Amino acid sequence: MQTGSISALELCISAVRRGGVVSVVGVYGMSYDAFPLGQIFDKGIKLAFGQAPVQRYIDELIEILQRGEITLDDIITHNLPLEKAPDAYRIFRDKEDDCVKVVLKP
Predict the structure, then answer these.
(1) Measuring CA to CA, how many Å separate 79 from each of 10, 44, 57, 70, 87?
(2) Fewer beta carbons within 10 angstroms: which end of the chain, N or C?
(3) Mean pLDDT of all residues belonging to the chain
(4) How many CB atoms are located within 10 Å of the residue 75 CB?
(5) pTM higher than 0.90, yes or no?
């Protein structure tokens, strides 16, 4: 699914069966005026939201990365120096160049 896109959520709501569950993981921080409440109500859809307890897993995840068991090449789309942080946040917010994640380097 698309990161940060309301169309991904709309697709899930449209595709889920009656009485099904649509789960949103991670952060979905955008506002949305035309939320399809009628379709959710009509199909009896349950919505589930949550975030991973990142601090609980961070040390283990860093070790896995350092061992090369996984890479982040698919999600890190931009690398910028720390002094470009305002630009990095703008690029991320506006999804410039299909931005997924930005790494800031000191």
Answers:
(1) 31, 43, 23, 18, 11
(2) C
(3) 89
(4) 10
(5) no
